[in-house]
Design goal:
By secondary structure, the chain is an alpha/beta fold. Helices cover about 35% and strands about 15% of the residues.
Length: about 400
């Protein structure tokens, strides 16, 4: 198993390095030694022929210290102002650190709504690829100054995961202030054990992670587990390791076992599929029956109106929607071919009956399989296993809900 793990690391050519707030800050502000150490190690990876994008926390923390505040303000404008103050100092220190090794940096500030828009998503990817071609290191953070709750990534663990998907990365290295995922919080329970490798996401992983955030960060181990679930589903490996450990990146890439490694799925998800599944925000939900769920999950089929049980929310044609099983379990995301009002009228119908109800038929499918991404992993989840047949007195054989 260690050999298999190391093969992913050795073969990783494009790497996302995410550094958390607790690694980068100390009592009086930014931990400049940490900034310089991480920068030096990234330069070593680049010298070795790898491409590196850096997702960094620290702007809020740096701003708090610079202004002299003891804790994050409660109001959104104050938090955004603190981030604006801190971001300037943060990027300046990175620029100085990388300049020692003859490398230039570029500040890239993203928002969730920008990534949800397909055109802006592609533009961001093209810009980042151009920077890499120019051997300029993208330093990425959320644009806290303009982000509000409805459009924010939530934390930089999620931002790092989205960046990994955006850039088709091979490996996400998530650096925090503890050695990896433990069975319990090692800062509270001395008998906690480090989990060195994860290949299947079982429910107890989130129980292990809890929701332990530091005084400055918004994430915690739970957000890292959720980030790992996203990237590994798309075929990208991830490791959680201690960024406070000396030369941690050198340790990881030298072949020595450290941290918690998350194995990716063998089949790589296409960029478009990963965007649909993990980068867009759903505008509504479509509840489907068990037969349709089985066909979509197990047979790779499109979703037809006959499998739709209920429509929630208001959305237009082409909108991203979540589709869920009859018990409400989220199964995936897709771009819908009918508005919510039209879909409510044709739910349960065969495709051939759509013109009778609407007066027209644009598509047979509610969501075509090419515009649909499965996010539910029934090999890992403890949720329901949807059968191929309906149950109960209404069962009439195989379900014909899909195309």
């Amino acid at each position: 198993m260690p050999f298999r793990r190391q093969s992913y690391i050795e073969n990783a050519r494009r790497i996302i390095v995410k550094v958390g707030s607790n690694v980068l800050t100390e009592r009086d502000g930014l931990n400049l030694r940490a900034v310089r150490a991480i920068s030096r190690q990234i330069c070593g990876l680049i010298d070795g022929g790898r491409q590196v994008l850096l997702v960094t926390s620290g702007a809020m923390a740096a701003g708090l210290r610079k202004i002299g505040l003891a804790a994050r303000p409660e109001s959104v404008p104050q938090r955004q102002a603190v981030a604006a103050v801190g971001q300037a100092g943060l990027i300046m220190e990175y620029e100085n650190a990388f300049e020692r090794y003859g490398l230039k940096v570029a500040q890239v500030l993203l928002t969730s709504d920008g990534i949800s828009n397909r055109k802006r998503y592609l533009n961001a990817r093209n810009t980042l690829n151009t920077l890499l071609d120019w051997q300029v290191i993208p330093i990425i953070n959320e644009n806290d100054t303009v982000a509000v709750e409805s459009i924010e990534f939530g934390d930089n663990d999620n931002l790092a995961a989205i960046t990994a998907l955006l850039m088709d990365a091979d490996l996400l290295v998530n650096l925090t202030d503890i050695d990896g995922l433990y069975t319990r919080d090692p800062r509270v329970y001395p008998d906690a054990s480090l989990i060195p490798e994860v290949s299947v996401f079982k429910k107890d992983l989130e129980a292990y992670a809890g929701c332990i955030a530091g005084p400055l960060g918004k994430g915690g181990m739970l957000s890292k587990i959720r980030a790992a679930r996203k990237v590994t589903a798309a075929g990208i490996a991830m490791i959680i390791a201690n960024g406070c450990q000396e030369n941690i990146l050198q340790t990881i890439f030298s072949g020595r076992t450290t941290g918690t490694f998350f194995f990716p799925r063998k089949q790589r998800m296409t960029s478009r599929k990963s965007w649909i599944g993990y980068s867009v925000r759903p505008e509504g939900t479509v509840i489907i029956d068990a037969g349709a769920a089985h066909a979509v999950l197990k047979r790779g089929k499109s979703l037809l109106p006959s499998g739709v049980v209920r429509v929630e929310g208001t959305f237009d044609v082409g909108a991203p929607v979540r589709f869920s099983g009859p018990d409400g379990t989220p199964l995936g995301m897709g771009l819908v071919n009918y508005s919510s009002s039209d879909l409510a009228r044709i739910r349960g119908l065969k495709s051939g009956d759509i013109p009778k109800r609407l007066g027209h038929k644009t598509f047979d499918e509610v969501i075509h399989r090419n515009n649909l991404t499965i996010t539910f992993d029934d090999a890992a989840e403890s949720g329901p296993k949807y059968p191929a047949h309906k149950t109960g007195p209404a069962a009439t054989g195989k379900i014909q809900h899909v195309h």
